[in-house]
Amino acid sequence: MTVVSVEFSGSVALICIDNPPINATSHAVRAGLMDAINQIAQNTTVTAAVLYCTGKTFIAGADITEFNQPAQPPLLPDVILQLETLQVPLVAALHGTVLGGGLEIALGCHYRIAAASTKLGFPEVQLGLIPGAGGTVRTPRLIGAQHACTLIAEGKPVSAAQAQDWGLIDQIADQDLRQAAIAFAQTIANAPLPPALTNRETPDTSNTPINWDQLLEKTASKARGAHAPIIAIETIRDGLSLPEHDALTQERQQFLKLRDSAQSRALRHVFMAERSVGKLAGLNGIKPAQMNAVGIIGGGMMGAGIATACLLAGYTVTLIECDENALEKGRQMVTHHLQSSRNRNIISDTVYDQHLSRFRGSIDYTALANCELVIEAVFEDFEIKKAVFAAIDAVVSPQTLIASNTSYLDINALAAMVNHPERVIGLHFFSPAHIMKLLEVVRTDTANSQTMATALAFARSLGKIAVPTGVCDGFIGNRIMSAYRKQCEYMIEDGAYPEQIDAAMTEFGFPMGLFAMQDMAGLEISWNTRKRQSNTRDPNERYVALGDYLCERGRFGRKSGAGWFLYNSPKAAPVPDPDVAKMIEQESARKGILRRHFTHDQIMTTIIGAMQNEGHKILVEGIASSPDAIDVVMINGYGFPRWRGGPMFMEL
Question: How far apart are CA 485 and CA 610, in angstroms?
């Protein structure tokens, strides 16, 4: 199969890359581009050239399966240097997602024209890398160091409009992209060639020079232990003061060093895991049921978030509440979420109005009659959920999927409450549901393959990372969190304090420590779980009642101004409370425990060990299908540092 071809439109040469699905810069593409460059260089009738891709996107990155193989020439940096040597103007016609090596190739062309919907970026830092084919050298020389640092160190793509504003592209096509690129090439065919980007002076795009030390400090704070963003900034900074060849050499050395690092291996593991965990054995050939209308029971924080996620995905949504007052609060919360998306330019005014036109509310369950999926998101109480399931079952068709958003409760028992239990599923969203990417899809004992295929397709339609899980108390994520929370509570009684454990976790790379996270979520949630489990708890198991004591004193966390920590305002940082320390010390004394010191390493070894031990149990029981599933859940739902690869990937 020829992945790169050359044809001609008059005196304009058209280089076409056809390497589905993302036109990755594989060896075949690199070799094909070299051949195309040679063909054009030898054709004296050519006055300009256009580089474009077939399919849904321009080059969307490298073929990362080649990373663990010996490099095969031609290497991408050499291909791009050859693109720069063409003696006729070369126009890159961009569409879809122009990422990583794809953007580096575009920068090796003399001009860039893009479809209006194009996204451009350097996501390499998300794989523990930096651009390795001139991205850190050419980008600042085109758009300035400040914009280059933002684009490369943060790893987030920008729109075509933003790219044009920065000078990253020359034109946005308002017609057929290929034809627009040909027309553009014809207009500049006889113009002097612009100098290669590596030979240009860095433009001054800011009124104030970059404070590199300050930028590095800020980047390190956001990176939370990840190396690539910091090295990206340093490479851009150092490359600006080096000759072209030395700057490109330095970048390549840094790229190769990062590629072989433990962090990049871990991040590549997560990248592949997130794309594989949603594939469930036995579903091949099963077509998901089509869905257009979704019902949500409960308009609180979780229900409103789920409703928003469904609206943003294009579904018609019916929100059910117990009375008009609660319904109005739910409506207001959903509207607020959509307004926030509009304010951040995630959706336009027109799309905002379209979403609201598909949103309706009611206090009558019969409004759910035409829904293909109904999700309950009410208070975490089995009797309440059982009554909701019965009410849903009475009004929807036998084919309607019924889902629970429960975090802990037995969905098998809920499924037994309805007719046709084979259509009951768990959809455990994470708060805020319209933002968090993780969605645990819980397979009940009675759920059939059609139900699972439809549920997984629904999760993907919301843009979620869907992780199938079996039924158990807490599923994958909350069960593992309960296990390591228990060990943290043991350490509290044995000599540590909440602020010490939280400091160890944030130093490790978590965005927040366990006790601050509990305060943010509300301590009454786990308190209710412990009360529910009290009758079945092994009397010989060690039990820590400190969390119960806090709740009994009305200390439910951040929202009440006090939990494990004190909070001077709703958004204030947690402050250690001497009263909590005293309570802990008194409890240790009451139990006859001689308190001892814990180092941060000891704390984290205990936490990771607890995660791994519980993870192995979950695998043996068949709750999770693979260690990768556990890693994906803990990274995307519980703040486990992505650059460490997940608890099951790590070696203690």
Answer: 9
